[in-house]
Amino acid sequence: MSKIKDLQRLLETKEISCVELTEKYLDNIERLNKTINAYVRVTAEEALETARKVDERIAAGEKLMPLEGIPMSLKDNISTKGIETTCCSRMLQGYYPIYDATVWETLKKQNAILLGKTNMDEFAMGSSCETSIYGVTLNPNNTDHVAGGSSGGAAASVAGNMAVFGIGSDTGGSIRQPASFCGLVGLKPTYGTVSRYGLIAYASSLDQIGPITGSVEDAAIIYDCLSSYDPKDSTSVGSRTTTHDKLNNSVKGMKIGIIDEFFDGINRDVKSSLEEAIKVYEDAGAQILHFKMPGLNAVLPVYFIIACAEASSNLGRYDGIRYGHKTDTYKDIDEMIRKTRNEGFGKEVQRRILLGTYALSSGQYDAYYKKAQNLRYSIIRDFKKIFESCDIILTPSVPVTAYKKGEALIDPIEIYMMDICTIPANIAGLPAVSVPCGFDKNKLPVGMQLIGNNFEDYKVLNAAYQFEKLTKGSYLSPEVEI
Amino acid sequence: MNYELVAGLETHVELSTKTKIFCQCTTEFGGDPNTHCCPICLGMPGTLPKLNKKVVEYAVKAGLATNCKIRNVSKMDRKNYTYPDLPKAYQISQFDQPICYDGYIKLSSGKNIRINRIHIEEDAGKLIHERGDTYIDYNRGGVPLVEIVTEPDFRSVDEVLEYLEKLRLIMKYIGVSDVKMQEGSLRCDVNISVRKKGEDRLGTRTEIKNMNSLNFIAKAMEYEFERHVDILESGGVIEQETRRYDSDLNITESMRDKEDVDDYRYFRDPDLVNIIVTEEEISKLRGELPQLPDEKMDIFINEYGLPREDAELLIKYKKIAEYFEEASRDIKNKKLVSNYILSQVFRRMPTDSGKEECAVSLPPKYFGDLISLLENKKINSSMASQALEKMLDTGKPVSEFISQKDMEGIDEGTLREICQRAVAENKEAVESYLGGKEKAFGAIIGYIMKVTKGKADPQKAGDIVKEIIKSS
Amino acid sequence: MITREEVLHIAKIAKLYVKDEEMDQLIQDMSKIIDYADAIKAVSRDSDVDFDNINNIANAFNEDLVLPSYRRDEILMNREGGENGYFLVRKSQRG
Ligand SMILES: [Mg+2]
Ligand SMILES: [Zn+2]
């Protein structure tokens, strides 16, 4: 069910040239992006140039590398040398990085075809792309709804058949939530497996780069390409094992943990889809185990404090001096910096910077940041304990299906709560994948999340792949016509 | 009323690693503006720091050489503040777990200046203000520093100056820094307070920031001491604040115009990982430390019998001290070697930096050979001086300038003849000597040495002269 | 409830301005979120272990080997108005 492999077969048998393939995707973008707004920048020239190179290599009889010739997209917070990279913020409009992110370097070496940079919430702070200066990204499944966020553009580029895969980033669910909203597979790898070098930081200890794809197998292929030790990233470890070769392990005897708290207060349609999915596993011989995790209600505030604190520091560098937005009029340097930041950052970003500054400020540090770090440690321990008796944990990806346009801006706390299922994996650094497992009454996709122990990305992908196979791919987005 | 000065020092020492602390740009001083920069030291979006291993080793060595304890597990923290010379708006430093702590440096008086901590951090870029505009060069941004923080143990400017000299020398000896003050590789913040003599309580302190000359430090401290005393004497209150020293006006002035909000929001840098230094590594680094200036001083004075002043002069320049040690390896009378270095060698290196460099083409072994001849009385001092000049000019061994014949001295027959002549031509001196004036004997020997151009052995000549006088 | 003065202090060190007309809404939003975050104060802490990093990595080091720096025109590429190779911030700028 791998689109990557299917397309490479077409390329290798010369049923289609890479230039033709790329043009088809560029045509789709041309046609659909006006409505969907998945891309904030299309890199047609670069794409076609690489495509020609691939065609030459095919003509010369070279064997294709795993991602060679595959049209794809990058989230706009991944540094691309010479290609404007803005984090969808006014602050970085007109910023042209002078270096490549490690993931982009890897993809480039593989001759993957970059079609463009995708929309996201400003500095990845949001869950609907509605904080992007380029406006919301719509859900290709139903354009009354959003594609989700913050990697909404990445997901929509794949769901709208405007890319074979999208590379996104996930700090609190930003890959898995839009994947879930769009009926796609979204993988947040184990923290440290994919290099963060060149990922414009939101919250360094939580951020991970990962793929959004139309199938589990594609996610596994991409993971295997991107997960390697990067000497430029001090927190990098690389993967301990490949995943693609382990997808076919049977789920028979697999121990799947259900943490009851994750199912509290979720949407009814989501719940019934999940229950069916659990039954699929059970019928296939998996063992379902139930756990309690009373610490779960601390996860959200812990996340929020850590993310905002780190963000407040990470975003301090935008001062108008070396790159990015700079205000026109000011009376001294201090005013220059403050005005620049006021004009450059949107409201949500400013709010999180202020909250993070508060959590770290003298007098508050112990009560908030230090306490949060401490609780983070105990949350990690809780998960370790659960993984002593199960292989993976199954949860909803999001308690709801894709929001209606405009719906997400209402109440900050309520919106933050929607990330409750995805956040724990970031807090604990665990690998987690969202796979489509059903539809709600409006035919909007429902996602199931599988969480694994550290470095057991292969287990979550294996379980996800088996689910896809057992359900004959019936929840995936329809096959692309080329 | 009698006031006492109480001061503590925070000294920033630039480490002499080849590359910056978190990237691999060069640390070379100078260079055209912004030519020693990369996306990492410029803090460009998405870049990540990675710690230079040498920085840790140097910091540990600095700690060991100043009697510090070394923390086996330490971490890097972010110190958040916005200033144009700081491209990430935070300085990566160490907050609550500095790599070295609890050390001291002993002053010549025997008093210990306690070192509270030594931590690792990155330097900022350089700002040039011109007509209110700010020009920024980030070449220095990311150069590694150690910050050495003392307890408020200083009671006089002299103690501060001696401490700084010692600290500088130690850093230099252990090879972790060039400590070139004029290039800003050693910079000081001084905390000052005053109190009435005999009081225990500390007064309110002010901090004078960022001085890189011993002379300015002394002047600034004196000024600030007087200022505190004046305020207190006139019934005023000292305000705790940061001040800068204006060397043109010789005053200190408040830096409040910077509108500093002191809330650095320190927290562990999530982009960096723990630094673990094992006991094995610590002892390995300890083993790599050279003999420190204080130990050398002890040996030079107590074993080699050098006067303190001479020893200090030699030790002040590490390479000179080492040259001396090499040259005097086989010499019993070490002072002989020291004398020639302090006079003839030093004359060729008029500046401090010249001595620092100690560019002598003459191998110390050759130097020693020459002194050995002198010590064994094969040659006299004037011969030695002349030969040394030529040797220093050419780098060639003593044999090039003093022949075997020159060194052979005088055979007994000739010496006896000369002695007889000496007795004959110095009748008065002989009379005086016989009359009990020992001194007069010296004049006779002096005559012989002069005639033989110093080649005669004065001991032997003396014996012969006495023999002649007795038998006459 | 966060106070107006606290917000102003925080804004100052965060190098942001808060417009008067936005102050009330901001105080409200921030207070709501802070109240929510206060939930963690109630959670008892069962250990004092300081979280360092997910994978307990230590000693990730660069060797002390110089690599070429970037060309200055690249370094300055994203900022016009540099002079003689410096980044430049004018004292003030009128519209
Ligand atoms: Mg410091
Ligand atoms: Zn650099």
Bin the strand percentage of chain C. 5-15%
CATH class of chain A: Alpha Beta
Radius of gyration of chain A: 21 Å
Mean pLDDT of chain A: 95
Poorly predicted runs of chain C are none
In CATH, the topology of chain A is named Amidase signature (AS) enzymes
Uncertain segments of chain A:
none
Element string of chain C (H = helix, E = strand): HHHEHE
Describe this structure as you would to a colleague:
The complex is a heterotrimer of chains A (482), B (472) and C (95). With 482 residues, chain A is an alpha/beta fold. Chain A has a single domain (1-482), classed as Amidase signature (AS) domain (Amidase signature (AS) enzymes), CATH 3.90.1300.10. Chain A is 39% helix and 14% strand. Chain A has helices spanning 3-12, 18-36, 44-59, 102-109, 152-159, 176-182, 216-226, 268-283, 296-314, 333-344, 347-360, 366-387, 412-417, 423-428, 457-470; strands at residues 39-42, 71-75, 113-118, 138-139, 142-146, 165-170, 185-188, 208-213, 255-259, 287-291, 392-396, 432-439, 445-452. In chain A, helix 4 (102-109) links the parallel strand 2 and strand 3 (113-118). Chain B is elongated. In chain B, helix 6 (308-315) crosses helix 8. The mean pLDDT of chain B is 92. In chain B, helix 3 links the parallel strand 13 and strand 14 (242-246). Chain B is built from 16 helices and 17 strands. In chain B, strands 3-7-8-11-1-12-13-14-15 form a 9-stranded mixed β-sheet. In chain B, strands 6-5-16 form a 3-stranded antiparallel β-sheet, with no helix packed on it. In chain B, strands 4-17 form a two-stranded antiparallel sheet. By secondary structure, chain C is mostly helical. Chain C has helices spanning 4-13, 20-37, 39-42, 72-75, and strands at residues 61-62, 87-89. At the A-C interface, helix 9, helix 10, helix 11, helix 12 and helix 13 of A face helix 1, helix 2 and helix 3 of C. Strand 2 (51-52) of chain B pairs parallel with strand 1 of chain C, so a sheet runs across the interface. Magnesium ion (MG) binds at residues 93, 121, 147 of chain B.
Question: What is this entry, summarized?
Answer:
With 482 residues, chain A is of the alpha/beta class. Chain A has 15 helices and 13 strands.
